Amino acid sequence: MWLLRLSWALSVLATMAGSGPAVPPPSTASIFADLSAAELGAVRSFLLSRPELGLSPSHGGPLAKNSLFLVELLPPKKRPALRYLDQGGPRPQRQARAVVFFGGQAEPNVTEFAVGPLPTPSWYRPLAFKGGRSVPFTARPMTMREYEELHSVLAAAMAPLNRLLRDATGFWYHNGSCRHPRAGEGDGLGQRCLTFSDVAPRGLASGERRSWLILQRFVEGFFLHPVGLEVLVDHRDPDPRRWAVRQLWYNGRYFSSPRQLAESYERGTLEVARLPLPPARQLFSSYQPRGRFATGTPSKAHGARVCEPQGRRYRLRGNLLEYGGWSLAFRLRSSAGLQLFDLRFNGERVAYEVSVQEAVAFYGGHSPAAMQTKYVDAGWGMGSVTYELAPGIDCPATAAFVDAHHLYDTDGPVRFARAACVFELPTGVPLRRHFDSDFQGGFNFYAGLEGRALVLRTTSTVYNYDYIWDFLLYPNGVAEAKVHATGFIHATFYTPQGRRYGSRVHSHLLGNLHTHLVHYKVDLDVAGTGNSFETMDIRFENISNPWSPGARQGAHPEEPGQDWELCAHPTQHPHMGVCPVPPGRYHLAVTRHHENEHSSSSIYAQNEPWEPLVHFESFLRDNETIEDQDLVAWVTVGFLHVPHAEDIPNTSTPGNAVGFFLRPFNFFDEDPSVASRDPIIVRPLDPPACTRLQIQRW
Fold first, then answer.
1. How much is the pLDDT for 547?
2. pLDDT tens across 484-509, in order?
3. CA 370 to CA 161: how far, in whole Å?
4. Which residues have a catalytic role annotated?
5. Based on the number of CB atoms within 10 Å of its own CB, is 155 exposed (0-12), middle (13-18) or buried (19 or more)?
6. Do residue 512 and residue 582 come from a single domain?
7. pLDDT value at 21 more than 90
8. Cα–Cα distance measured from residue 140 to residue 149, given in angstroms and rounded to the nearest whole number
9. Residue 89 domain boundaries
10. Residue 526: inside a domain
11. Which 3 state secondary structure label does DSSP give 244?
12. Which of 59, 149, 331, 413 could form a disulfide with 40 if both were Cys (CB 3.0 to 4.6 A apart)?
C-alpha cells in the first residue's frame, strides 16, 4: 500500500482541516465526541513543544526519529461518566490518546500517552497496557515514510528484472512516481508502471519485519492485475540502507535474489508468464458499463429513491442522535471506527457502549503472499480511512452527512468530508401487520405498520476491501449491527497448484479463499450495571398427552445453534437478547467490565500477532463470576468467502453481510412501537360486502 495509492486518495478524498465551524454538540453527549480539528492541532503542538520528547514531523526525514503517529479521543472511564450522566457528578476531563513512535533512540519503542486537559493541554502521562507490557518498535503500523523507503528499495532491487518484466508484462518498476490511471484514458501504456500490495503479518516470529510484496500492473483496479512476481523484503532495521530482498517467487518457483531470477530468464530456463497488454477500453477491473440485460426493461431511467415528504423524523445535534424512543452518542475513532455510547430507549439506558473492535481476514493460497496473508485491519488504520460517502449511492441523497477529522500518520488534522451519514430507511417489509379474515370472502379488519429504521453508516476502505458499517435502530426497541463487505478481492497470480485454494476468476487471476471475522464490543447495562448472563436452551421433550392417556406428544424440537443468550437485571428481570451469527472460536463471550480491558484488539496486533499487546483470551481466563456484575458481551460475526467470477470487478453486498441484533425480551410491557403514529387500520363499513371502508390514520 505504498505512496502511489495513498497520496492520490488523500489529495482527492480528504482536505486539510480548516472548514467552517462545526455545530457544538449537546453537553452530555459531547464527553464522547471525537476531538475537533482545533483539539487535534493543540495536542500535536503541545507534544512537539516538549523538548524531552524530541519529536520531528511525520513526513520527511529519516525513519529513525521520534514522531507523533496518532491522536484521538481518550474516552472517559465508565464510572465517572455514569456519575456525570446519571447523578449530576462532575464533568469528566476531556483527554486525548497520543501514539508516539520513538525510533530515534538506542532502544526504539512505541509509547502511548494521555494528554490533557483539552482544549488547552498542559500535561501528558504514559498509558499502560494490561500487564504493563511495552510496545516493541517492530509492532508499529506502517507509515507513509516507511512505504516511500520500501518503494525505493524495491525499485533498486527490480533493476536487474526490467527486461523480464517488460517482455512478460509490458510494464516495469519505475524508480519514480506514477500518476494513478483513470478510466477512459486508454490502457495506461504511456507510463507502464508496476506497483505493489504488501501483506501481513510481516514475518513468522515476534520481532521480525519482513513483508511479501505482490507486484501488479498499475492500471485501474490494480489489485486484480498481479504479474506473477512476489518479493520478500526485510525492513526491520530503522536504517533503510540495511534493508534487503531475501527471496522472490515467480510463477510457482522460488529464487534467492533478483540476479538469480534474471539469470534464469537470460539462460532460457525460466517458464515465463506472458500477459497480454490491457485493453484500451472496458478493462475487466473497471466499473465501466459493458454488456446488456436480456429483458429490455428500462435501464437508463433513474431507479427508486428514498424521500422525506415532510422532512426528517430524526434529530442530529453534534454527536447526539435521536429517533423515536432512541437516543445515543457516537464517534468515529481513527483506530477502529464506529463507536456508540449511552444507547437509550425512552430515556432508559440499554447499553453503555456498542462498538466495532476489529476486522480480520484469513487467506489460503499457493504463493507465499497468499499463504502469509492474515489481515488484522485495525493495524491498517481501519477507522482513519473513512473516505467520502457519495449521496445517492453510499447513502440516500436526503441523508444527513457528518465530517470527521483524523490525525493518523499526518503532520496535522485532516478533514474527511461526509465520513458518516444518517438516514431513515423504509425496510420494504411491514414492522407488523395482520389481515383478519371473516372466512367468508371478506374481512373484519386489516392493520399494518410500515417498516422503517434509522441507519447510522460509515465505511472503511482498508486496502482493497470496503467495509460498510451500519447501526440500525427500529421503533420496536430492536437495534442491529451490520457490516457489508465489498470492494476488490485480494487476489494472487494464477497457477494450477493454486486451484486448491481458490477459484480462477480471470485468465491469470486466482481469487483466494478467505474468512472474514468481525469483532464487536457490547457493554449492556440493562436496568443498571448489575447484570447477569443466562442462556435459554430449547430441547426436544417427549411427554404423555394429558387428554389422551397412552399417547405421546413431541414438543419443541431442538435446533442446534438457536440457543438464546440473555442479559438480565437480577431483581427487575428485564432482558435484552444478543442474537449473533456464530463463527469463530467464540461467537459470544461475556466478561466483567474492566477499564484495562476496554478493547479486544489494538493497532499493533497486525505486526505483532505472536505476542499480542492485547490478548483477548486473558479476558476470559480470570474465571470471574458474571452474576449481578457490570458485564460486557464480545460478539464475533463473519463468513467464508469463496471468490468466484462474479466478484469481478468487485464483491457485491448481497450475501456478503453479517451482524447481530439486540432484542428486548420481556423488557417492555408490550411492543413499544405501539407509540408510533404510523399504523393504518382498515375496517369494512358494510360487511360482508366490504364496498365501503373506514381507514384510520394517525
1. 86
2. 999 999 999 999 999 999 999 999 99
3. 22
4. 377, 465
5. middle
6. yes
7. no
8. 16
9. 28-127
10. yes
11. strand
12. 413
